[in-house]
Amino acid sequence: MSFSVYLSGEIHTDWRDEIQRGAEAAGLDVVFTAPVTDHPASDAAGDHLGETPSGFCRDHQSAKVNAIRTRTLIEQSDMVVVRFGDKYKQWNAAFDAGYCAALGKPYVTLHDEDIVHPLKEVDAEAQAWCTTTDQVVEILRYVLKA
User: Fold this and answer.
1) Where are the domains positioned within the chain?
2) CA quadruple 121, 137, 34, 43: dihedral positive or negative?
3) Which carries the bigger pLDDT value, residue 2 or residue 72?
């Protein structure tokens, strides 16, 4: 069985690469997709539409262009992994998790134990909460090979 997994959330560490390497080493047939992880490129996604009068308007414009990609890839995925890092607040990741919940799209969260409380509602709707990328790979292994 082939599986499509969208890797949402934190962009400042190599967690996506760890999951991809783990899935490959396990021989899993998984296609991974992700948001644009180049922060300046993501921030500039709407700049081609013209100058904006403020930073808010630029962010708003680019967020809407990014949403085309994000929504499409989430909708096309079989499962979403939502990573919350400890360095920055990933409001976009929380939004992606909520979007998954609204669609009935299976998702798992990936974060450290020290942020369980602020993510309790997000985790409550998730099919699993993982603390390591290896745990994510084990879920994929189970889903694809059980």
Assistant:
1) 3-145
2) positive
3) 72
Task: Give the type of residue at 103.
Answer: L
The CATH number of the domain covering residues in 3-145? 3.40.50.450
The first and second tokens of residue 78, run together, are 């079989």
Contact 42, 36 (CB under 8 A): yes
Q: Is the dihedral of CA 47, 12, 95, 3 positive or negative?
A: positive
Closest CA to 127 of 82, 65, 66: 82
What is the pTM for the complete model shown?
Answer: 0.95
Residue 76 C-beta-side C-alpha neighbours within 13 Å? 13
Give the span between the Cα atoms of 87 and 75, in whole angstroms.
Answer: 28
Token readout for 60 is 């708003």
Q: Is a pLDDT exceeding 90 seen at residue 86?
A: no
Write phi, then psi, for 8 (nearest 5 degrees): -100, 155
DSSP E strand boundaries for 52-146: 79-83, 107-110, 128-130
Whole-number pLDDT of residue 144: 97
